[in-house]
Amino acid sequence: MADSNSDSRWPQGAAEVKDTPSPAVAARGLGWDRLAVIYGLWIVVALAYWPSAVALNGYWTNTIINAYTHGYLVLSVSLWLVMRDRRKIFAAPLEPRPRALWIVAVLSLLWVYCYGAAIQDPQLLLLPLLLFAAIVTALGWPIARVLYFPIGYLFFAMPAWSDINSVLEWMSVKVNDLMVAAWGIPAYLTRNYVHLPGGTLKIAAGCSGLHFFVVGLALAALYGELARDSLRRRFFWVGLMGLLSLVGNWVRIFSIIVAGYETDNKTYLITVSHYWFGWGVFVIFFIVFLWLAGVLANRWDRRGRTGSAAGAIAPTRERAAPVTASPMTPVLAGPALAALVALVVLPGIVYGANLVHPVARSKVTIQWPAAPPGWQGPQRVLYSNWRPVYLNPTARSFRRYRTADGQSVEIFAVAYRRQTQAGKLLGYWNSLLGAHSLLQWDSSRVVTRPSGRWLQGTVVNDAGIRSLMWVRYVIGKRYFLVPRLSQLWYGLAAFTTRPVSSLIALRAFCRPDCAAARARLDVAAGKLVPSVHAEIADD
Asked: Do 475 and 486 touch, CB atoms closer than 8 A?
């Protein structure tokens, strides 16, 4: 007969998880040193890898893009989950794994490489892995296993999610195109522009719903953790809330389109802000998630108890072998100290080398060639709808050359003497087309010309006017067409040299057609590309 005090969600006969230390152990206060080591390593990772911590703080406090302002809340939840599971941490056997030091060392070396290459997303993703490996070294696998979720939860605050932003934006545009047609609104969509009788709206990158999507996934994962659900059921909750988050964002965009149509684009949601409106819609869909999760969980639990539903998502809670309180022993200082040293030694060497041997103070000059016969220039570009944005460059220059018949080629060059998180070619805040540009990439491909290989992109503005753009990245004397490959090479080169990094981009309007624009770019790529030089600066 089942114990009348047992949780009804547990199948009869399930083993009780005994994770509470004995009263004698609790009285002696043993086990708290384990928490001190865990939280201490957390602080060490933040300090030893402070460039990454500073970058995360920038994302988490940025109220302009508002994509990761949930970061500190995620961090707080992670820290709280560790404290919540303290009894399990106290009960788990202390089994330090000094052999895991090589994992810490490899992860630290990868971080140093990413730091030198100014590759930020992988650099930030390494932080939870470094923390987990250090805990394995100092305390062992049994304790580290308790921290799978608290440490893994930090990934919901990492900016690497931005890599799927373009996919979410594309989905938002396609779905709203169908919704506008189905609703019968006299509007049409071209790319991500919504043309209404009262004006044109843009479904921008910030309308992708990335923030709602990531927060929705984080809340669903936390829901499954607090309920101690099985892994299978947790994945279902995350998938369900992810879908509801997307649908909520699509409804938000469509509501703004309808409001714009009804008010000739004079609604508050267009003229002022629709940010909090989006969160209001999100809350409604999260309430729907909680209701669905409760209904489904109760249904599956009833079926699980009666055994009438083959394949039901069960059991409700994770099963674990009985865990009894192990004889409590103090944390060993040796493994904990070894983990700390492994965390700090490589970044410490890099910081020290940068202080002892700083990059020679130099300036970078961009030299423009004279126009060939039949051309005019170089001319400063006083106005253009192409406004590239690159933060903290060492040098940048924008020039225009004209043919005898008045057609132009615009050439942009930007260079960095040393790439860092504050200034690099592949930066989150950089935009080749411009931060608030009406230009958009329509297609791209690689072309091979006498001047070498270029990445050719077709660019379209809001009026549908097309232009061709040729782009390539230069690290030292090597050319790259893939931005990430240029950063990877820079990371290797930065170990021994400090190559100048630059980007060259050429643009020509498709007048009278794109074939003519391609011919002008061919001449410009062969004769008008500027040269980039690093020179020692005068005191």
From this structure: yes
Residues sharing a CB contact under 8 Å with residue 288, sequence separation 6 or more, in sequence order = 244
Do the beta carbons of residue 190 and residue 440 sit within 8 Å? no
C-alpha 220/C-alpha 218 separation (Å) is: 5
Q: Is the pLDDT of residue 481 over 50?
A: yes
Residues 453 and 457: their CA atoms lie apart, in Å, by: 13
pTM: 0.79
In the chain, domain spans = 23-167+198-353, 362-536
Spell out a b/e string for 273-310, using b for 16 or more CB atoms within 10 Å of the CB, else e. ebeeebbebbeebbeebeeebeeebeebbebbeeeeee
Q: What is the mean pLDDT of residues 460-484?
A: 90
Confidence of residue 361 (pLDDT cuts 50, 70, 90): low
**Are the CB atoms for 125 and 155 separated by under 8 Å?**
yes
The closest alpha carbon to 388, from 399, 376, 378, belongs to: 399
Amino acid identity for residue 149 in this structure = F
DSSP structural state of residue 172: H
pLDDT tens figures, 255-270: 888 888 778 777 777 6
Three-state DSSP class for residue 478: strand
- Interatomic CA distance for residues 61 and 443, integer angstroms: 34
Q: What's the full length of the chain, in residues?
A: 539
| pLDDT confidence tier of residue 26, bands split at 50, 70 and 90 | very low
Provide φ and ψ at 48, rounded to 5°: -65, -35
Distance CA 71, CA 75 (A): 6
Token pair listed for 535? 């020179």
> Are 492 and 534 in contact, with CB atoms under 8 Å apart?
no
Task: Count CB atoms within 10 A of the CB of residue 457.
Answer: 20
What's the half-sphere exposure (Cβ side, CA atoms, 13 Å) at 198? 14
Which string of DSSP letters, residue by residue, matches 279-293?
HHHHHHHHHHHHHHH
Contacts of 53-58 with CB under 8 Å at 24 or more apart are 53/127, 54/421, 55/120, 55/123, 55/124, 55/421, 56/124, 56/127, 56/157, 56/158, 56/159
Q: What is the DSSP letter of 374?
A: T
Question: Would you tell me how many other CB atoms lie within 10 Å of the CB of residue 120?
Answer: 23
The residue with greater pLDDT, 185 or 96, is: 96
* Number of other residues whose CB lies within 10 A of the CB of residue 204: 11
Measured torsion, CA atoms of residues 201, 203, 204, 206, in degrees rounded to the nearest 10: 120
Pairing of strands 440-449, 478-480: unpaired
Burial status of residue 507 (CB atoms within 10 A of its CB: 0-12, 13-18, 19 or more): buried
Strand-pair partners of 469: 457, 507
Catalogue the E-assigned strands of 162-304.
Answer: 188-190, 193-196, 199-202
Q: Which residues pair with 229 in a beta bridge?
A: 317
